[in-house]
Amino acid sequence: MEITGAQALVKSLEMEGVEVVFGMPGGAILPVYDPMLDTSIRHILVRHEQGAGHAAEGYAHATGRPGVAIVTSGPAATNIVTALADAYMDSIPLVVITGQVARPFIGTDAFQESDTTGITMGVTKHNWLVTDPNEIPEIVAAAFYIATTGRPGPVLIDLPKDVSNAMMEWHWPSSADELDLPGYHPAGAVDQDIIEQAVDLICASERPVFYVGGGVVKSNASDELLELAEMTGIPVVTTLMARSVFPSAHSLSLGMPGMHGNYTAVTAMQKSDLLITLGARFDDRVTGRVDAFAPEAKVIHVDIDPAELGKIRRPDVSICGDCKLVAREIINSLEKRGILGDTESGNTTGTDTRRDISAWLDDIHEWQERYPLVYQQSKEGELLKPQMVIEMLRELTPDDTILVTGVGQHQMWASMFWQFKMPRTFITSGGLGTMGFAVPAAIGAKVGHPERMVWAIDGDGCFQMTAQELVTAAAEGIPVKIAILNNAYLGMVRQWQELFYDERYSEVYLSPDLPDYVKWAEAMGCVGMRVDSPNDVAPVIEKANSIDDRPVVIDFRTDAFEKVYPMVPAGASNDDIILFPGQYEDSTTDVQEINEGKVERR
User: Fold this and answer.
1) Mean pLDDT of the 268-294 span
2) Which CATH architecture best describes the domain 192-370?
3) How many CA atoms lie within 13 A of 487 on its CB side?
4) For 79-90, what is the mean pLDDT?
5) Over the stretch 316-338, which tens digit does the pLDDT of each residue have?
6) CATH class of the domain comprising 374-564
7) Is there a contact between 79 and 434 (Cβ–Cβ < 8 Å)?
8) Cα separation of 301 and 309, whole Å?
9) All CATH 3.40.50.1220 domain ranges in the chain, comma separated
10) Which residue from 304, 302, 278, 301 is spatially nearest to 185, judged by alpha carbons?
11) Pairing relation of β-strands 167-169 and 2-4?
């Protein structure tokens, strides 16, 4: 069967099981948009190409399936680079297709020409400039295979216009074995001897901690993690990218570590004698000053990407493999040794002689009691406390609600004060820290799971960067819900200027009333609401939850002076953690205030 290259591309996407693509047409990609009229694939027309990329990311985050975006050449391709970089940092499977000028014009500075493959080489797992229409099926198949195997990530296919229009004989590779992928060898089986070395360290440790990253989410290993934690009684810290992979209310959950992690998670890692690192990469926001990070800890490092092993911290045992498979092997080895954990005491009931970690758990419980996450309560007549808004959202939404955030203070508060119960229910931009991520990512998540409620918690600064995508949501019937924590500032930057730049607030004020978020929301086809009083928070959230035929935007007027605590200053040791004012070992004032109900305790 002879078809055009453009038809082959669309047919290849169908063969890969693609159900939805996010995109925007333009000159160089127009040949592909014509056969899009005849496909069952849903196309969602975004209002900016960056929005297409972030929406595809949100879809991939929520579903575990690769997100797909299609845009044209030149500025469209450069607009989506931010989303590619974001997906690359956070290991999100993404397939981006860009139009390109016709082959004879490449290199002539033709209209809307850019060196897309050159520009994106550093932010993709692989990219292709298609020069032969007959290669399209193999390239598409290879793109999906590379994006979803090994360490997931983004790939890009750059398709010249004349290649799209050229004829080719349709064919489809029958298996990955037919693909020409020299040098690409995803991690396979793990040597059992290495597993036993890891288990030896686990059994010998007295102060172990599971240090869990986004790789556990990507490998769908939440069940194995829960089983492993309960079997061993070892507490679990979850990085920002892993926040929903372990139940927040579980007795072994310590929360998030790092620069804005809670005291117990940070201190447990610092004082541990063993870090069992699963799918985490020792990011600088977690470690603080590297030479002072967890100084007495041995390290087991499990990661599917061999480049991560030893990159920041030299492991005592390094395991290159899928977290789900490795965790299962560790469980099997522990069972053979008779390890049957008692999660409350840390003792085992099997025949093995694993070290007693009950004293370690006692220390952890003491830190949890003494240094909980706290904030001053909202009072009538005062601006809202953002933490209270997040807690109220959490209480009034279903357990399977998908929470999406932008980047900044609101992101940290959401991670701290939301109670996660199910995996893949927290979507955020971690490594790149992309402001403007929340709105389009929430749209993608809702498209991936239309049956579930999707809330985005955004800052006023982030919201203004990509709010136009709510037009997309309204036009396409995607009823996402957006909570803007409007403090009239670039809040995290303001916090740093207050603490480290002598309160010299340079270019961070945004104004609480410009724009009018309610009118803006209504102009975009959404329901707009505003909340100023603590007493109105719950009723307005309940009203928003009852609306399911269009997007909802709520402007929550929050306290500009509220800061994110705890905090580890950049470049400092995690031992230098700054707590909520007054919450230090030599002071009990804050504990008394907590007990008297003057401060919320979580």
Assistant:
1) 96
2) 3-Layer(aba) Sandwich (3.40)
3) 26
4) 98
5) 999 999 999 999 999 999 999 88
6) alpha beta
7) no
8) 7
9) 192-370
10) 304
11) antiparallel
